[in-house]
Design a protein that fits this description.
The complex is a heterodimer.
Chain A (H helix, E strand, L loop, with lengths): L5 H10 L6 H18 L34 H6 L4 E2 L2 E2 L7
Antiparallel strand pairs in A: 1-2
Helix pairs in contact in A: 1-2
Chain B lengths: L7 H9 L5 H19 L2 E4 L1 H14 L9 E5 L26 H9 L2 E6 L33 H8 L5 E6 L5 H7 L2 E4 L19 E6 L2 H11 L29 E5 L9 H16 L3 E5 L7 H16 L18 H12 L2 H14 L4 H23 L4 E5 L15 H6 L5 H6 L3 E9 L2 E8 L5 H14 L10
Parallel strand pairs in B: 2-3, 2-4, 7-8, 7-9
Antiparallel strand pairs in B: 1-3, 4-6, 5-6, 5-10, 9-11, 10-11
Helix pairs in contact in B: 2-3, 5-6, 9-11, 9-12
The chains are: A mainly alpha, B alpha/beta.
C-alpha cells in the first residue's frame, strides 16, 4: 500500500512554496513514500505515556531587559536585496 | 614536513623563538591550497588578501595566545561579514553577510586567521558533500571516494594539510562522520555549549558547531575558544567555562567504558568492529575497563531524526523566499509564484525532499502520527543514554559502520545514505557530546572511534581520546597527495 499519493505531494509542495514539475511529483512521491514507510517502524513502540522532547536541555524561558538598541543599517540590509527602489526592497504586486 | 604537522603549542613555541612568523603560517596554507585544492576541492571561497594583511598586523601587534596567528577554514554555513557565505546552495550564491557569527567573533579574539570558506552538503543536508551545488569535494586518502558530510570540506582541508584546523557543524553526524572518513579529529559538543548565532539553521534543536583538527589537544584548545553563553542564542547554555586542554592527563585508570552491542551489530563491517575492539584493548591496558551494554532504541534513531530534522528544516528554510537576500527567480506572475519559482530553482533535490518530508510531517492530520511520535521516541533515545551514564563514564563505539564509500555510489538512494549516520544520530537526539578520532585503516581508508560523554562532560571525552591517541600512531599518518 502506498502511504502518499501524487495529489498529496502536489499539496505539500504548494504548502512548502515549491514549484514542481510532473516528473518531480512522480519522483518525490516514490521517494517520500519509501521514507515514510521506513519511518512507520516507530509505530512498533508504545509511546502512549511518553512525553515528547522538543529540546534536550532543561531550560525555561530566557528573558532579557526590554530596552531599545540600534537596528541594522539600511544600506547594509539592502546590499543583499535582489531588487530595490528608493531605499526599499521591491517585490512583485501582491494585490490582484 | 609541513608546519601544520606541528601541534599548536609547538607552533606557538616556534613563533616565540622567531623561527617562523605568522605570515609564514598563512603562506604555508595558501601554498598547500594552490598545490592540492584543485584535486581535493575543499574550499568554496578564499580570502587571501585579508588573511595576508591580518597576518602582518598580528605579527606586528605582539599579541600572543595558543591560537594566535594560526590559519583556519570555516564551514560555509557559518556567516562571515563581507566574505561570501552560501551554505553550498544556489539560493545564497551571492550572499554577502552583514555580521559575523558569534564563533567567528570569538576566533578573531583568539587571533586565528580565516583563509576561506569550506564546501559542504547544501544546507548541511547530506553525508557525502555530493549535495553541494558548487563542487564535489574528494577524500584526500583516495580521490575517488567521498570525504563524508556534511562538513566534508572542513575534514578534507585538515586531512590534506591545507589548514591545521577548521570549524564544522553537526546535526546528525556532520562533524564526526567526515572526520572519521578523512582520518582527523572531530568534536560535536554538548547541545548548547557553542552559540549557534550566525550558523545558518538546519535543525535548531540538533545543530552544534564544533572543531576539526589533526590531534586531540588542538581540538580541546579550539573548542575552549568558541564555547560560552551568548545573548544572541537563547539556547546557548550558561555553564562554567573550563579548560579542556589542561585536563589531558593521559590517565584513564578506573574509567568505566560502556560499549553498546547495537554499535557493533548488523551492518557494521568486520574491520570496523576489530578496530574498535583493538582500541578497547589499548584503553584496558591503560587501566580502564569496559562492558557491553544496550541502547535499545538505537535502531529507531534514523527514522526519528529524519522526521524531526526535516520538520525543523521545513520551518527554518521558509526564510529563503527571494525577497530580502539571495537568488530571486525572474518572470514571476505574482508573489506566491515568485516564492515557488525562486525556491524551485534555488534549492537542490535533497533540500527539496527534506522540506517536503518536514512539511508533510507537520501538516494537519499527520502531525501526531509523525512529528509528535518522533518527539516521543526522542525521549526514549535520550533516556537510553541517561540510563547507561548512571553506571559508566563514557560510551565507545565506531563513528560509522564502514569507511568512506565511492563518489556516486549511493547518492541516488536516500535511505542507504541516511543509514550512514546510524551511529552518530542518537548522540544529537540526546544532546550529548561525541568525538571521532582515528583508530585504524581499512584498505587504506581511515576508520574512526567514537567516544560519547555525559551532557557538558567534554572534559572526560577529551581525556579518554587523548589517552588513546598517546598510545597509538594512527593520527600521525598522512595521505599522499
Amino acid at each position: 500500500m502506498t502511504r502518499i499519493s501524487e495529489e498529496q505531494v502536489r499539496h505539500v509542495a504548494h504548502l512548502a512554496r515549491l514549484a514542481v514539475t510532473d516528473e518531480e511529483v512522480h519522483k518525490f512521491t516514490e521517494q517520500l513514500d519509501a521514507i515514510i514507510t521506513f519511518a512507520e517502524q516507530l509505530n512498533e513502540l508504545d509511546t502512549s505515556n511518553v512525553k515528547p522532547t522538543s529540546h534536550v536541555l532543561d531550560m525555561k524561558n530566557v528573558l532579557r531587559e526590554d530596552k531599545s538598541a540600534p537596528g541594522l543599517d539600511r544600506e547594509d540590509v539592502l546590499k543583499n536585496a535582489p531588487d530595490q527602489q528608493d531605499g526599499q526592497i521591491r517585490v512583485p504586486s501582491i494585490i490582484e | 614536513m609541513s608546519l601544520f604537522d606541528h601541534k599548536l603549542n609547538e607552533i606557538q613555541s616556534m613563533l616565540h623563538k622567531k623561527e617562523i612568523t605568522i605570515p609564514d603560517l598563512v603562506d604555508e596554507s595558501f601554498k598547500r591550497i594552490s598545490a592540492v585544492d584543485g584535486d581535493v576541492k575543499a574550499f568554496l571561497t578564499l580570502d587571501e588578501e585579508n588573511a595576508r594583511n591580518q597576518a602582518k598586523e598580528l605579527q606586528e601587534s605582539g599579541k600572543t595566545g595558543i591560537l594566535n596567528g594560526v590559519p583556519i577554514g570555516v564551514k560555509d554555513n557559518i556567516v562571515t561579514k563581507g566574505l561570501r557565505t552560501t551554505a553550498a546552495s544556489q539560493i545564497l550564491y551571492n550572499f554577502d553577510p552583514i555580521y559575523d557569527a558569534t564563533v567567528v567573533n570569538k576566533l578573531r579574539e583568539a587571533g586565528t586567521i580565516t583563509v576561506g570558506k569550506l564546501n559542504m552538503d547544501e544546507f548541511a543536508m547530506g553525508s557525502s558533500t555530493e549535495n553541494s551545488s558548487f563542487q564535489k569535494t574528494r577524500n584526500p586518502w583516495n580521490l575517488d571516494r567521498v570525504p563524508g558530510g556534511s562538513s566534508g570540506g572542513s575534514a578534507a582541508s585538515v586531512a590534506a594539510g591545507e589548514v591545521p584546523f577548521s570549524l564544522g557543524s553537526d546535526t546528525g553526524g556532520s562533524i564526526r562522520q567526515p572526520a572519521s572518513f578523512c582520518g582527523v579529529v572531530g568534536m560535536k559538543p554538548t547541545y548548547g555549549r557553542v552559540s549557534r548565532f550566525g550558523l545558518i539553521a538546519f535543525a535548531s534543536s540538533l545543530d552544534q558547531i564544533g572543531p576539526i583538527t589533526r590531534n586531540v589537544e588542538d581540538n580541546a584548545h579550539l573548542l575552549e575558544a568558541i564555547v560560552g553563553v551568548d545573548p544572541y542564542d537563547t539556547t546557548s547554555a550558561n555553564v562554567a567555562g573550563e579548560s579542556f586542554a589542561k585536563n589531558l592527563t593521559g590517565d584513564v585508570k578506573g574509567l568505566r567504558i560502556a560499549v553498546p552491542k547495537e554499535y557493533l551489530g548488523e551492518g557494521v563491517s568486520e574491520e570496523v568492529k576489530q578496530s574498535v575492539l583493538a582500541a578497547l584493548k589499548v584503553l584496558e591496558g591503560q587501566g580502564a575497563s569496559w562492558e557491553e551494554v544496550s541502547l535499545p532504541h538505537s535502531k529507531y534513531g534514523v527514522a526519528t531524526y529524519y522526521l524531526l530534522a526535516s520538520s525543523e528544516a521545513s520551518s527554518n528554510l521558509a526564510r529563503f523566499d527571494g525577497i530580502r537576500y539571495g537568488y530571486r527567480a525572474e518572470n514571476a506572475e505574482n508573489l506566491i509564484d515568485l516564492y515557488k519559482k525562486t525556491r524551485a530553482e534555488g534549492f537542490g533535490d535533497e533540500v527539496k525532499r527534506r522540506i517536503m518530508l518536514g512539511t508533510f510531517a507537520l501538516s494537519s492530520g499527520y502531525y501526531d502520527a509523525y512529528y509528535k511520535k518522533a518527539q516521543q521516541v526522542r525521549t526514549l533515545i535520550k533516556k537510553d543514554f541517561e540510563d547507561v551514564f548512571e553506571n559508566y563514564d563514557v560510551i565507545i563505539g565506531p563513528t560509522t559502520p564502514t569507511p568512506a564509500f565511492k563518489i556516486g555510489e549511493i547518492i541516488d538512494d536516500p535511505l542507504t545514505m541516511y543509514a550512514n549516520d546510524i551511529l552518530t544520530i542518537p548522540v544529537n537526539l540526546a544532546g550529548v557530546p561525541g568525538i571521532s578520532i582515528p583508530c585504524g585503516f581499512s584498505d587504506g581508508m581511515p576508520l574512526g572511534l567514537q567516544i560519547i560523554g555525559r551532557h557538558f562532560d567534554e572534559k572526560t571525552v577529551y581525556r579518554v581520546a587523548h589517552a588513546y591517541e598517546q598510545a597509538t600512531d594512527f593520527h600521525k599518518e598522512k595521505p599522499e597527495l
